[in-house]
Amino acid sequence: MVGIELELAINLICDSVDSIKDIEEVSIEKARGRIIGEDIIAPINQPPFDRSPLDGYALRSEDIVGASKENPIKLKVIDEVFAGGYTHKEVKKQETVRIMTGAKIPKGCDCVIRQESTDYGMETVEIYEEIKHHQNYCFEGEDIQKGSKLIEIGEKLTHVHIGIIASMGYEKVKVIRKTKVALISTGDEVICGGTPLTEGKIYDSNRRMIAARLEDLGCDVVIAEVMGDDENLIANEIKAIMDNVDVVFTTGGVSVGKKDIMHQVIQILDAKRIFWRVNMKPGTPAIYAVYKNKPLLCLSGNPFAAIATFELMGKQLLYKLGQDPDLKEVRKEAILQDEFLKASRGRRLIRAIYDEGKVYLPKGGHSSGMLGSMVGCNCLIDIKPGTPKLDKGDKVQVVLL
Ligand SMILES: Nc1nc2c(c(=O)[nH]1)N[C@H]1C(S)=C(S)[C@@H](COP(=O)(O)OP(=O)(O)OC[C@H]3O[C@@H](n4cnc5c(N)ncnc54)[C@H](O)[C@@H]3O)O[C@H]1N2
Ligand code: MOO
């Protein structure tokens, strides 16, 4: 093999770029899935006051010792308090306040009795059950203590984080800005959808497919173009867009054909080529270069090769840039449930479906140019070089997508 190992390729790619440090402030409505750019320290207690978890009566537990249905204890109701309100009255011996769930517990009370254990009295109330000190009592700060660290810089915000941030009264949060990506599909045979398909042409799938995947991965696709085979045009375009993006991905034109123009594009740009060819199938002829200190990853035009190498190398590059922990490569051992009869002289990665330790092959072809059988696949089986075939029951390693 003439290329480098996949692991080395990933290391070279990741070592060549710095993580994005730019922070932007976004409304919490838009913050789900973003990487937080600051520690969030609680500015208040949650709940912000001692409150009732029940609809009932707030009282002093010592006043109702021994209370039961047979031996009710009568208390004077001195006020009524709803969630959102409060009373300034202090509850003294043999007194109580009618209270609703979520309302602030009045001074003097140390517990709340549920209304079902009373006669629901308005002026006075009969209590039918004894409860203890601090029973049915929510303390200020019992959920979140003022000053505690709620979210650490670098965490990915889930809906639960958003709930917590919202409970602290914040409307905005600082996050790492999204990774800005440009995509270019090359090849004179590649045309955009919506135009008639003429002889020898094919519709572009790579640009739309990778753009959609980039959205899944939380990136901002700022440019997505179909550009033909003119190396000067492509080089000029990359020159023009590189300042506005963090990374450029291209597909097509990386192999050894007369029109495999990405080699010339890299020369015209005077970009630093880091590697060409990775010891694996699909996507062997991938090229990686650095231009204006930014990454230019050129993938094979074959749609399966393009998406597989994007998943293996492109995703790790995006992980380094945007620091989204969900983008880190995950490998699992699995037991193959089908056979794969093709010999793998070199390392081969094939599409498959992983489910709880088992892995299934999809129906349909496995070649680099075929995308149809990729539907529903959620992993790549990493087949070692020199594997004659895979049998049902073989233990394999998969890379989750
Ligand atoms: N003599 C040799 N020929 C080839 C070799 C080799 O070593 N010696 N390597 C083969 C391998 S492996 C691959 S992979 C391909 C890679 O070719 P390129 O990356 O240069 O890609 P293209 O030739 O431009 O396209 C390949 C294939 O994919 C179709 N394509 C391209 N772009 C798109 C797109 N945006 N959407 C859909 N389909 C696309 C294109 O029409 C070709 O059919 O080279 C082998 N050849
Ligand atoms: O390396 Mo290429 O993607 O197999 O056909």
Description:
With 401 residues, the protein is α/β, with parallel strands linked by helices. The protein folds into four domains: 6-21 and 177-327, Molybdenum Cofactor Biosythetic Enzyme, Chain A (3-Layer(aba) Sandwich), CATH 3.40.980.10; 23-46 and 142-176, Alpha-Beta Complex (Molybdopterin biosynthesis moea protein, domain 2), CATH 3.90.105; 56-127, Molybdopterin biosynthesis moea protein, domain 3 (Molybdopterin biosynthesis moeA protein, domain 3, Beta Complex), CATH 2.170.190.11; 331-400, MoeA, C-terminal, domain IV (Beta-clip). 17% of the residues lie in helices and 27% in strands. It is built from six helices and 22 strands. It has helices at 6-15, 159-167, 206-216, 231-241, 262-269, 303-322, and strands at residues 23-27, 40-41, 56-59, 73-81, 95-99, 111-114, 124-127, 149-151, 172-176, 180-185, 190-191, 202-203, 220-226, 247-251, 272-276, 287-291, 294-299, 331-336, 348-355, 358-360, 379-383, 395-400. The strands form six sheets. A six-stranded mixed β-sheet has the order 13-10-14-17-16-15, with helices on both faces. A five-stranded mixed β-sheet has the order 6-3-5-4-7, with no helix packed on it. Strand 16 and strand 17 form a beta hairpin. Helix 1 crosses helix 6 and helix 4 (231-241) packs across helix 5 (262-269). The longest helix is centred in the last third of the chain and has 20 residues, at 303-322. The radius of gyration is 32 Å and the shape is elongated. The mean pLDDT is 97. The chain binds ligand LQZAQKY5 and molybdate ion (MOO). Its EC number is 2.10.1.1. This is Molybdopterin molybdenumtransferase.
